């Protein structure tokens, strides 16, 4: 690529585009700064690439979900279809960034790299981290290493495969890590240190068909467990209209015996039940959870509850049954060699 790369930035809001009354104020308005203004604040970006920008949402990512993710995915595919674009950067809130990145990995088939980036401090903050994250995201997708496409999260010098990004801190600048793998690359100044392979997800682009449908995704709820909860989380949950349910169990997928029995009954009655875990770095296998293999409750492998809900909702939208869905989650589990 002799010429400067052409990058298109899509703004969706979030802290990166937040504005507070003072540089040290804790409170700020999420989504107050347009994407075009964000890129104007990044010294050196114009030396790196020719950058265009648009803003499609201007809100905290706590307000974004499958409806907006689909709109974003369709816009990314439109932009990537242009010969005038070499890659896309999405500025986004951190709170649901990992779900948006996983959703985009599962539905997008764009053959150009997409980097989601965010910030832990608003644009008006003392030492705002957004400009550096935005520069690093643009640098990453301009690199020949990523010209094959793929979805990535670039935060605080880390380049993470989109499906592996998890948020680990409510306040730290270093608030994302890669799980179950490690970072794909590390940004050092204006250079990239490649660490691991591209690490595309085993289901990259598998649900592209969902983008062509105008239907909303099926409702999938998550129930979180606490010590001593007994079977209350399910006996009290309004699960009538949800076709899929994710249990955020303990440790490696354990739950009270009474709850396991209730979960098995739900699975037998036609709700697709997945068991994940409330821990940060999840690994739930058929042998580690409290339900028995033939109960029909599906172990989530390395997917946390929120990512399990994204995959389960897409699989249900695609018309897959419990056995076929279990096969998909198995791709995110340890496999006997
Ligand atoms: N404002 C929240 C969000 O949009 C937090 C953030 O952006 O960091 O996700």
Structure report:
The chain has 337 residues and is an alpha/beta fold. The protein folds into 2 domains: 6-194, L-asparaginase, N-terminal domain (Rossmann fold, 3-Layer(aba) Sandwich); 218-336, Rossmann fold, CATH 3.40.50.40. Helices cover 26% and strands 21% of the residues. Strands 2-1-3-4-5-6-9-10 form an 8-stranded mixed β-sheet, sandwiched between helices. The longest helix is centred in the first third of the chain and has 15 residues, at 66-80. The protein is globular and about 60 Å long. The N and C termini lie far apart (41 Å). The mean pLDDT is 94. The structure holds D-aspartic acid. D-aspartic acid (DAS) is lined by residues 14-15, 30, 60-62, 93-95, 118, 120.
Offer a concise description of the structure.
The chain is 26% helix and 21% strand. The chain is α/β, with parallel strands linked by helices.
Write the layout of secondary structure elements.
Blueprint: E1 6-13, H1 35-40, H2 45-48, E2 50-59, H3 66-80, E3 87-91, H4 97-107, E4 113-117, H5 130-142, E5 150-155, E6 158-161, E7 165-167, E8 176-178, E9 185-188, E10 191-194, E11 220-224, H6 232-235, E12 244-249, H7 257-268, E13 272-277, E14 298-299, H8 305-317, H9 322-330
The structure holds D-aspartic acid.
Name the features.
Rossmann fold; binds D-aspartic acid; 337 residues; alpha/beta; eight-stranded mixed sheet; four-stranded parallel sheet; 14 strands
The N- and C-terminal alpha carbons lie at a distance of 41 Å
Count all strands and give the number.
14
Could you name the ranges where pLDDT drops below 50 across 5 or more consecutive residues?
none
**Share of residues in strands:** 15-25%
Total helix count? 9
Largest sheet descriptor: 8 strands, mixed
Structural class: alpha/beta
Task: Write the H/E string, N to C.
Answer: EHHEHEHEHEEEEEEEHEHEEHH
């Amino acid at each position: 690529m002799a010429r400067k790369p052409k990058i298109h930035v899509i703004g969706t809001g979030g802290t990166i585009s937040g504005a507070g009354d003072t540089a040290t104020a804790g409170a700020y308005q999420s989504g107050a700064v347009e994407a075009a203004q964000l890129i104007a604040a990044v010294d050196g970006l114009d030396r790196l690439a020719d950058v265009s920008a648009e803003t499609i949402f201007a809100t905290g990512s706590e307000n974004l979900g499958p409806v907006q993710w689909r709109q974003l995915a369709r816009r990314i595919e439109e932009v990537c279809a242009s010969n005038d674009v070499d890659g896309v950067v999405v500025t986004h809130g951190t709170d649901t960034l990992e779900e948006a990145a996983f959703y985009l990995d599962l539905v997008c088939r764009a053959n150009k790299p997409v980097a989601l980036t965010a910030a832990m401090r608003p644009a008006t903050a003392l030492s705002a981290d957004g400009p550096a994250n935005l520069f690093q995201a643009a640098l990453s997708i301009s690199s020949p290493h990523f010209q094959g496409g793929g979805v990535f999260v670039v935060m605080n010098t880390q380049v993470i495969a989109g499906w592996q990004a998890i948020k680990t801190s409510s306040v730290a600048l270093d608030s994302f890590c890669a799980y179950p793998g490690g970072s794909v690359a590390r940004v050092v100044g204006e250079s990239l240190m490649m660490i691991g392979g591209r690490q595309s997800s085993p289901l990259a682009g598998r649900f592209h068909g969902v983008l062509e449908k105008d239907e909303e995704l099926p409702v999938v709820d998550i129930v979180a467990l606490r010590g001593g909860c007994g079977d209350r989380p399910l006996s009290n949950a309004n699960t009538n209209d949800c076709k899929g349910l994710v249990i955020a169990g303990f440790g490696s997928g354990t739950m009270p015996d009474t709850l396991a029995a209730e979960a098995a009954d739900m699975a037998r009655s036609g709700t697709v039940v997945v068991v994940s875990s409330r821990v940060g770095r999840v690994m739930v296998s058929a042998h580690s959870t409290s339900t028995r293999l033939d109960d029909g409750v599906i172990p989530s492998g390395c997917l946390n509850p929120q990512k399990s809900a994204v995959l389960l909702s897409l699989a249900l939208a695609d018309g897959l049954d419990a056995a076929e869905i279990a096969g998909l989650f198995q791709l995110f589990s340890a496999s006997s060699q």
